[in-house]
Write a structure and sequence with these properties.
Layout (H helix, E strand, L loop, with lengths): L1 E5 L6 E5 L6 E3 L6 E3 L22 H9 L9 H7 L5 H12 L5 H13 L3 H20 L8 H48 L1
Antiparallel strand pairs: 1-2, 3-4
Helix pairs in contact: 4-5, 4-6, 5-6
Length: about 200
Amino acid sequence: MATDVDCPSCDQKLRVPDDLLGKKVKCPACKTMFSASVRGLEEPAGAPPVDEDERPSRASGLAASRRGTPPSERSEDEADDESPPRSKDSRVRRKRFTDYQPHRGTIILVLGILAIVTGLHLILGPIAWIMGNNDLKEIHAGRMDPEGEGMTNIGRILGMVATILGIVALVVGCIFLIIWLIFVVGFLGLAAGASGH
């Protein structure tokens, strides 16, 4: 059989075999050695009863043990435990500013808009399209700042639309030019035939 015992240092519940009751055991959480006793039974001789509210936590025990130790003599683990917790946002912000290339989303978006608004569909459109594709690959590979992904994608799409509109306009213009040339040649041929008679 086993009995539930509370660690006096960290209040961790431990399952202790009955044959170890009254003997020294080690808490696996805080590594404190204590005499295993069931709550409500008499504490071992020589150990004054400890009130639950007065039981030191592991953190306060570590802080108390470090008070007299200069920072230079503390181990790396102790120094890490003392440092304030870092939020996920601060880690992401530090990574963004130190490791990522700056994004070019604003430039690509402006190029895409100008490609639609101006008549330079076949010049600015492909530039925005190609730059957007390249930058999105870098963002997805984790080498470029992901904050610019939205603007980069919009600019790339505008560049694609402008390029397609430019190609369609070019094809339609060529068709109209061919039709006009056929009409002009036919008209000149009719005029030459009429003058010969």
